Structure formats: structure tokens, C-alpha cells
Amino acid sequence: MIAPVNPTLHTTSRNENRPFLKIDQVEKSFKRGKATTHVLRDINLVIERGQYVAVIGHSGCGKSTLLNIVAGLTNVSSGAVLLEDQEVSEPGPDRAVVFQNHSLLPWLTVYENVKLAVDKVFGATKSRAERHDWTIENLSLVHMTHAKDKRPGEISGGMKQRVGIARALAMEPKVLLLDEPFGALDALTRAHLQDSVMEIHARLGNTIIMITHDVDEAVLLSDRIVMMTNGPAATIGEDLRVELPRPRNRLQLVADPTYVRTREAVLKFLYERHKSPSLDTAA
Amino acid sequence: MTAHVRSTDFVETSAGRLPATVAAIPVEVTPKAANDQGDGPVPAAHENTDQPTPRSRFAGLAEKSGEWLANIVPPLLVVLALGLIWEMAFSSPTASLPPPSKIWAEAKDLILDPFFVMGPQDIGLGLRVMTSLQRVAIGFGLAAIVGVLLGALVGQSVWAMRGLDPVFQVLRTVPPLAWLPISLAGFRDANPSAIFVIFITSIWPIIINTAVGIRNIPQDYRNVAAVLRLNQVEFFWRIMIPSAAPYIFTGLRIGIGLSWLAIVAAEMLTGGVGIGFFIWDAWNSSRLPDIVVALFYIGVVGFVLDRLVAFAGQIATRGTAAS
User: Fold this and answer.
1) Number of domains forming the structure of chain B
2) Neighbouring residues of A220: CB distance < 8 A, sequence distance ≥ 6
3) Would you say residue B52 lies in a domain?
4) CB distance from B222 to chain A under 8 Å?
5) Can you give the pLDDT at residue A17?
6) Quick one: which of A96, A98, B40, B187 could link to B192 by a disulfide (CB 3.0–4.6 Å)?
7) Which CATH number do you get for residue B198?
8) CA angle B295-B301-B306, nearest 5°?
């Protein structure tokens, strides 16, 4: 039905018939005593293999909850998440998460942090030497081999996030989940890391779901932007394709009419049609 | 807590004494010294300097010897002054307690040779301390293992906490010696009873601190463990213990102090060759100078034990403290 957006990826006809990742009528509500808070409702999404999907919305709209549901860290109230026809019910390395605040273990070195994941996922299938090589390979993918023996406390925020990405990639996940991965970084570091992620995506063709509240980031990186309405009981308001060829260059894109149009569409959605109710009071 | 206060105090005094050298690298000195468990901020500040420029290395060296002096001189002066006051206060022939000069004269053999053996009951204080330490090692070692495991259970499971925590809170207020009659009745032997008293005295702070440490494991680490599908054993060793290590070592440090308090008291009642019984024995034969020497031994050993656990904690938590 929909042509694969990533030109480097060849999906077989078998895979085109069935969805790679299907979020089917997902609903999430939290119960506290007698009060029930609806966070998400009617979430339906079909994501193809190799697709880079950005989920954008105002804070508190439940986009992180949606990511946690796909990760298996949060259970659905009703509906289901299907990854290659398997229902997601618990967390696992096939859906690796890059957490917003990197979540590296501070008592392990950079190398050991990645190695922990590698040992756990490939302990049975790879030899000790292979696991070492695989750890180093993933660290070099994010250009962090020079600091492999440093502890997280000794490296910058951007470097920590790189290691977090390396750890997630090292699990060879079917879906890579990024939870506002660049949110805590300064603008220059963020741009640098965005380029790295684009490069890795082009090279490995991962399926990626990224939570963000940055419009430029969403348009620059993704094939598809899923916009969430405001909570409570948020749902998908609009599902927009980003028809920009890859590789993308942030400098050339600034003047690109498609880029400008896409960016405008997202901004309109966020600030005209679904203006955050908290913005009025907060300002 | 006391360690923190001590190290901060120290930085302030050294800054007062050596304003120039300390001011050369003020940013490195203060936070490192505050992080440091009080074991001398000198090596910490020196080693962790990121750019060892010649200037900071020189400043570090000058600072090192300066801080060493600043560390050693004040307590020496205080001890000298206290000794002098003591000597003057108790030098009259009718004084109830012996002055330092009399202690030196009468208990010289005890002070100079801690390891002499003159008979089964007449041995040096060093050997007596060793006997006591052996009991502490067994009792405290057991308390550490059981305490961390129970603490992990209470910290991890809400139901275990609801069931066990009230029991712990009541039992931990029981004074060490109150356990002794019960334990003597149970074990029918002095040595295991003394060890049990150590165990039961030192286990509570270990349990409680471990439980708090485990309850405070950030959700992020739990999420990482969940995504990696770590099993219970892996989670315990890879996440729980390292993450809760600062809390666990606080508990161990309080525990070792308490067990040293308890052993002396317990040995007074159970007899044997420990340092506690020595004091009781010396009291019964009116050898007051011996008691003073024994007190000094106990104080020094207690201090060393505390520092050993603090040092072990510093090594074990070097990663966690850095974040």
C-alpha cells in the first residue's frame, strides 16, 4: 500500500503483506482509587520495517507512555502492540530504549555499560572475543572508542547519550525506541548527535520510533511524523509523511520548500489546532 | 554524617592556613573533599585533577605537605594539652584516678609490648584485642551477609517490608547486653553467645540502610535491567548491590562501630581472654592504670575498624559517588 520510504531497504513481498509493528486500538488509563485517568485512547499505527517515525506532542500528552507501551515497560489497558505478529507483553532487547537521561550505570565504564548489554543478548550465540569486537564496533559507530575506559561521570552529556545509543544498537533491536534522546543537550551537541543518528539509520536501516517535542528535529530526522492531540485521553491527531530525499543536510533543507511546508504543517497542528492548554496559564 | 562534617571542617581550616595554595585549585578541592568519606582529601584532590599542569602539580605538592601538617599538628597539640591537664589534676597522692606518669610507671610492660605471653591468662593487650577482633569478625561478617540479604528483601518487596519492618524497628532498640542472658541460655557457651550479641547488635543498621538504598534505586536502572531481561541473580549483583553500595557501606560502618561497643560489654560478662574481660579483671584487682591503657587500645582499634570499612566503601563506591 505504502511504498517503503527508505530507499536503501528492500522489503520482501512476504513482509509487505503483514505489518512489521502494529499498534492496534491501544488504550491506557491509570486507576487511583475510584478515579480513572485516561491517558491514551484509540491509538492505531502501522510502522514498516526501516521506517523512522517521530512522535510529537505537547508535554503531558502521553507520548512517553506510548513509547513505554511499545517498550513493554508499561502495560496497555486495552488493545495490543504486535511486533512481527508477536504480542508485546514485557520489555526485551528486541525493543531497545535510549532513555532521555541516558541511564548509564555509573559504576561501570563506557565499555562495560555496552558490554553488559552485549553479554546479556549474545551470551549464548557469540564467543567472548566476538562479544568484545561487537562492543567495540558499536562504540566506534557512535565515535566513543576513545573514552571506552571512562566512567559516565567523567564524560559530557552528549557523550553519555552516544554511549546510550551504542548500548541500544548493540542489542540489534528490531525497533529502536528513542525517548527524547536529545532533549537534555545543548543545541550544538544536539545537532551533532542528530547527524550521527541519521548516519547510523542510513547505514543500518533500523526501525526507529522517536519521541520529541522539537519540530525541526522531527522533520529533519523522520520519514513520518505522528502528531498527538492534547491529553487527557490523547490520541493521534495527524500522521504526516516527510517526503524529503535522504541523505538529508540540515543546511540545504532550510530553504527546501518541502521542508518548510512540512515544518509549517506540524507547527500549525501544535500551536493552532492543538494549542497546549497549559501554555496559556504558564505564560 | 560525622565524616562529612569532619572533611568539610578540614577544608576550611586548611584554606585558612594556606590561602594561596588552596585558592589555586579551589574547584577541585572542595567537591572532592566533600565526596570523600573523610579519609583525607589530600590524595583525592591530587589524583583526580584532570589537567596535571606543572603549576597545579606544584601547588598540589605544596598543598599536600601543608595539609598533612595541618592535619597532624592540631590533634597532637590537643592531646598534649589534655595530658598536661590530666597530670596536673590527678598528681596529688590522694587522687582517685592515676595521672599519666603513674600509668606509664605501672603499666609500662602493657604499653611497650602488646604481644607478650606470660601464661594462659597473662598475655599482651595486642593478643587480647586479636581475640576480641576474631569474635567481631565472625559476628559482624555474619551480620553483613544476613543484613544485606534481608535488607535487599525488605527493600525490594513491599510485602516483606510491611511484615518485617515493624519487627525490625522494635528489635533494633533492644540494647546489646539485654540479648546476652537469652543468648547464653540458648547457646550454653560464652563464645557463641558473645558472637551472637555482636551479630544482633550490628545487623539492624545494615538491614535498614540496605533497604533504603535498594528502595532508592532509580527507576532508570530498573528499566535498563528490564529491557536487558536481567534475571533476579544478575539484577542483584549487577544493579542492586552497586547502586545501593553507598547506603550499604553506611550501614556497615555504623554496624562495625556498634559491634565493637558490644564486644567489650559482652566480654566483661562472659569472661575469656578478650579485651573486655581484661578491663573487668583489672577493675576487680584494682589495676586502674591497666584499664586506662586498655581503653586507649579499644579506642584506637575502634577508630581503625571504622576507617577500614570507610576505605573499603570508598573503593567499592568510587563509580557511584562520581555521578
Assistant:
1) 1
2) A194, A198, A248, A250, A253
3) no
4) no
5) 62
6) B187
7) 1.10.3720.10
8) 125
Please tell me whether residue B92 adopts helix, strand or coil conformation.
coil
Q: How many residues does chain B have?
A: 323
Q: Is residue B34 part of a domain?
A: no
pLDDT of amino acid B5: 38
Neighbouring residues of A62: CB distance < 8 A, sequence distance ≥ 6: A28, A39, A40, A228, A231, A234
Residues of A (171-200) whose Cβ lies below 8 Å from B: 171
A93/B323 Cβ within 8 A: no
Residue A159 falls within a domain, yes or no?
yes
CB neighbours of residue A182 within 10 Å:
25
Whether residue A120 and residue B234 make contact (CB cut-off 8 A), yes or no, is: yes
Flag whether the ipTM exceeds 0.90: no
Residue position matching grid coordinates 541460655: B185
Contact B63, B22 (CB under 8 A): yes
In a domain, B60, yes or no: no
- Per-residue pLDDT tens over the stretch B75-98: 999 999 999 999 988 888 888 888
Whether the pLDDT of residue A246 is over 90: the answer is: no
When divided into structural domains, chain A yields a total of 1
Residue A91 sits at the chain B interface (C-beta within 8 Å): yes
Assess contact for B293 and B232: CB atoms under 8 A: no
Q: Tell me A183's DSSP state.
A: T
Strand arrangement of the beta sheet that strand A97-98 belongs to: A97-98, A175-179, A207-212, A52-56, A224-228, A236-241
A-B contacts at Cβ under 8 angstroms: 65
| Nearest in space to A18 (alpha carbons), one of A90, A86, A66 | A86
In the predicted structure, residue B203 carries a pLDDT above the cut 50: yes
Burial class (CB in 10 A: 0-12, 13-18, 19+), A175: buried
Q: Beta strand pairing status for A97-98 and A175-179? A: parallel
In a domain, B282, yes or no: yes
Per-residue confidence band for B250, with pLDDT thresholds at 50, 70 and 90: very high
Is residue B243 less than 8 Å (CB to CB) from chain A?
Answer: yes
Highest mean pLDDT among A218-222, B10-14, B102-106: A218-222
Report DSSP state, residue A108. Answer: S
Phi, psi of B280 (to 5 degrees): -60, -40
Q: Which domain holds residue A135?
A: 104-172
Whether the CB-CB separation of B289 and B103 falls below 8 Å is answered with yes
Q: Is residue B228 classed as helix, strand or coil in its secondary structure?
A: helix
- A92 in reach of chain B (CB within 8 A): yes
User: How distant, in Å, are the alpha carbons of A165, A255, B96 from that of A246?
Assistant: 21, 16, 94
pTM of the complete model: 0.75
Mean pLDDT score of chain A: 87
> Which domain range does residue B143 map to?
103-316
Question: For residue A255, with 0-12 CB atoms within 10 Å meaning exposed, 13-18 middle and 19 or more buried, which class applies?
Answer: exposed
